[in-house]
């Protein structure tokens, strides 16, 4: 069915179904001029927004409506995770071109509702408009954090270790496989594509690491090189990263080999892994290791004095400046 047949208001009625997961903190959700929410006592309110634009962030020939819905929420929950917080609500705005169908929107919201339910997040509002050209999705996520666990980019100190969750580079490599149309050629390509189209935000890890005393944190949206440079600039410190220590999955190593590329390049500059990079004193990190929390953590470097800048020790042991050349919207 097309949007004209159904109309704007009936479409919103479809979106409204199953939007609220946790009724305790919502007085008014979808259906009024604004949502009315109950803030948790003694918590800081977190608010973040990220927009996804067709042919900039996604290509509908290589991602399904469901996957796109899931990812639109995931990238926003990832920013709440990087503040050490717990996501609570999202507001979703969509600009719909006429070549999409009502079924597409229903499936988009099924993906959104799946991840919202998984993380206990309510969809409390949004906006629906027509687009003359291309699908645009904007999500605003809200969350809460205990003031003592708030994670900034600016808290790193000389001597802290630099650590990442998970493995890096899978998403950038998955994107390249999708763009080349070669992702069906090998079985080990598929997990890479899935990590690109449906990344999992590291919400539990962010809150846990914060409670164990991480000093600064960033989520990896534009690539590790860019994110560590942001921490270094905000904290007025230098950072040294060791190429050999950057965790790469077996799949990205195999795929990079097949593509004649270097897996490390995807990790440093590919982006969209939505893992966390953080700094932490070594004693605090040992406490986490002893607690065995089931989160994959890898030390990749250390915080050094600002005058050294941000450095990468390459696989041959040569120290180079690590330029923040991740994804830049105006330099593609
Ligand atoms: N158009 C804008 N108006 C006001 N603030 C903005 C605008 N764009 C970005 N910001 C702010 O700039 C800061 C950095 O935003 P940025 O989007 O780079 O972070 P991010 O969401 O972590 O990264 P990414 O968008 O790659 O996921 C944030 O505080 C954000 O709110
Ligand atoms: C069709 C298509 N072309 C290119 C890319 C790559 N890409 C787009 S935005 C971005 C950084 C994160 O976005 P933001 O900084 O806006 O949060 C990256 C790595 C993609 N995903 N799909
Ligand atoms: Mg952003
Ligand atoms: Mg971020
Ligand atoms: Mg972001």
Automatic annotation (TrEMBL):
Residues the entry annotates as binding Mg(2+) 4: 33, 48, 79
CDD domains tied to this protein: ThiL (cd02194)
SUPFAM superfamilies, alphabetized: PurM C-terminal domain-like, PurM N-terminal domain-like
Pathway: Cofactor biosynthesis; thiamine diphosphate biosynthesis; thiamine diphosphate from thiamine phosphate: step 1/1
Residues at which substrate binds: 57, 272, 327
Entry binding sites for Mg(2+) 2: 50, 79
Annotated Mg(2+) 5 binding sites: 222
Domain of life: Bacteria
EC number: 2.7.4.16
Domain PurM-like C-terminal intervals: 158-313
GO biological process, one term: thiamine diphosphate biosynthetic process
Function: Catalyzes the ATP-dependent phosphorylation of thiamine-monophosphate (TMP) to form thiamine-pyrophosphate (TPP), the active form of vitamin B1.
UniProt-recorded name of the protein: Thiamine-monophosphate kinase
Lineage: Bacteria, Bacillati, Bacillota, Negativicutes, Selenomonadales
């Amino acid at each position: 069915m097309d949007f004209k047949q159904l109309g704007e208001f009936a479409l919103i009625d479809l979106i409204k179904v199953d939007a609220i997961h946790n009724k305790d903190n919502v007085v008014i959700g979808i259906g009024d001029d604004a949502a009315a929410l109950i803030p948790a006592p003694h918590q800081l309110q977190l608010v973040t927004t990220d927009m996804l634009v067709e042919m900039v962030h996604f290509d509908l020939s290589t991602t399904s409506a469901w996957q796109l819905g899931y990812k639109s929420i995931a990238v926003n929950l990832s920013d709440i995770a990087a503040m050490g917080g717990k996501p609570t609500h999202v507001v979703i705005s969509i600009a719909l071109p006429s070549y999409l169908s009502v079924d597409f929107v229903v499936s988009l919201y099924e993906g959104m509702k799946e991840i919202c339910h998984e993380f206990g997040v309510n969809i409390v509002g949004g906006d629906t408009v027509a687009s003359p050209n291309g699908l645009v999705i904007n999500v605003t996520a809200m969350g809460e954090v205990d003031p003592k666990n708030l994670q900034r980019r600016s808290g790193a100190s000389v001597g802290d270790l630099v650590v990442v969750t998970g493995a890096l580079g899978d998403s950038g490599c998955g994107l390249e496989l999708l763009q080349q149309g070669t992702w069906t050629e090998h079985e080990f390509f598929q997990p890479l594509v899935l990590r690109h189209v449906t990344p999992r935000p590291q919400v539990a890890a962010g809150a846990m690491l914060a409670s164990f005393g991480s000093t600064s944190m960033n989520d990896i949206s534009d690539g590790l090189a860019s994110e560590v440079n942001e921490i270094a600039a905000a904290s007025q410190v230098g950072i040294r990263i060791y190429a050999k220590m950057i965790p790469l999955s077996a799949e990205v190593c195999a795929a990079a080999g097949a593509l004649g590329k270097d897996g490390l390049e995807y990790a440093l500059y590919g982006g969209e892994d939505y893992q966390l990079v953080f700094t932490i004193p070594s004693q605090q990190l040992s406490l986490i290791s002893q607690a065995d929390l089931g989160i994959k953590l890898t030390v990749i470097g250390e915080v050094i004095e600002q005058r050294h800048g941000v450095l990468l020790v390459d696989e041959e042991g040569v120290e180079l400046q690590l330029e923040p050349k991740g994804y830049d919207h105006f330099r593609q």
